[in-house]
Amino acid sequence: MVLSLSSHNVIQYLHKAGLCSSEEGANADSELPQSSKKNSNLLVTLAGNRKLLVKQERSVDNDGNPHELFNEWLFHQLLQRFPVLKNISALGVAPPSAIASLVVHFDEEKSILVRNYLKEYFELASFYQKNLSFPKAIASAIGISLGALHRATFNRREYRDFMATAPQGQFRYQFHNPAQGIGSIAPEIFGHVPTDALKFYVLYQRYENLEAAIAELAYEWNPCCLTHNDLKLENILVHSRWDQLDNCLIRLIDWEACGWGDPAYDLGTLVASYLKIWLESLVVDPTIELEESLLLAAVPLEVLQPSIIALTLGYLDSFPMILEYRCDFVQRVIQFAGLVLIHQIEEKMKHQKYFDNSSIYMLQVAKSLLTRPQESVLTVFGIAESEIIKPFAKLGQFYNPKRENNLLRLYYEKTRLRGC
User: Is the pTM of this model over 0.85?
Assistant: First the structure.
């Protein structure tokens, strides 16, 4: 990497890139917002209170994807190449500008991406945490926008081929399948994970039906549309006057992981984000059983269920065809929600270096979502699956993909941590 951006040289870089004038640069100010483990971020304020977010990709290890900023730039190029995607809102199937790109500059050589910063919007995760209020209108707008994107790109070869574009001089052999369990466990793990946290791997490996469910989910993964692939609440912006406007204005941001994928994964990631609010509010004590702890949550599941239902109904209202394509779509969403929770536990354990009782409870809930999706639909939504899909089609008309009974379940070889 030729240049490492900092608050000392970012203005000079923006001026050289033609993103600000010398007069703007003289009065510009920069600050360092929260950066991720993969990117360093700089927020620059120019004349007229115009703000730019400058992201630079850090060096990543062999397990990371060193071209995530390229993916976001590729998404920007996709919208320029196919303007119909930007006009989804004009067709009346999504809130205005929900799918629009904010990217204004990409420097592939230096791994720098610049996008407009929307000061009149707020991050949805922060809004929920601060207000402990979960308006159905916001959740519905998110579902409508996501369903509109999936519907517009569903089984469209031109979009799939475009998203297969690789960085200059490199290749893309296939799209990433997110339906993966915990990776291979090598002896090196003992030097990176505290002894107490090894309990996570012991518990995970104890449930063979959990591994079987994930393997089956991976086997049936069928990429068929453009997916965001990281649609957590932190990547959703809501207009500050959302409740005073005719349409609830939202923005789906940070398309660094986007690609050609399974639509159930995007919706499952969102459902997992709502469930995480519930699970992180549990009263955790060794003397309290899981069932009692779930009932004592500071944010009860019943408070979140209206938003989860509004999210799902908004999605299906935009994309009812998905129920004809996969009659088990809602159950797959639930399974992906469980898988996302497991990945979030592992991520937390690797970076925060601990695995506590709250994580054990989350793992048990995730296991239920993955291994018993039909029963879990009622738990998550508070209503039966038939009530969710009833407004969109008759159950008997759904296409049900046939499963081969003689298929062997697929498992990967890995070191077992028995007796740890």
Answer: yes
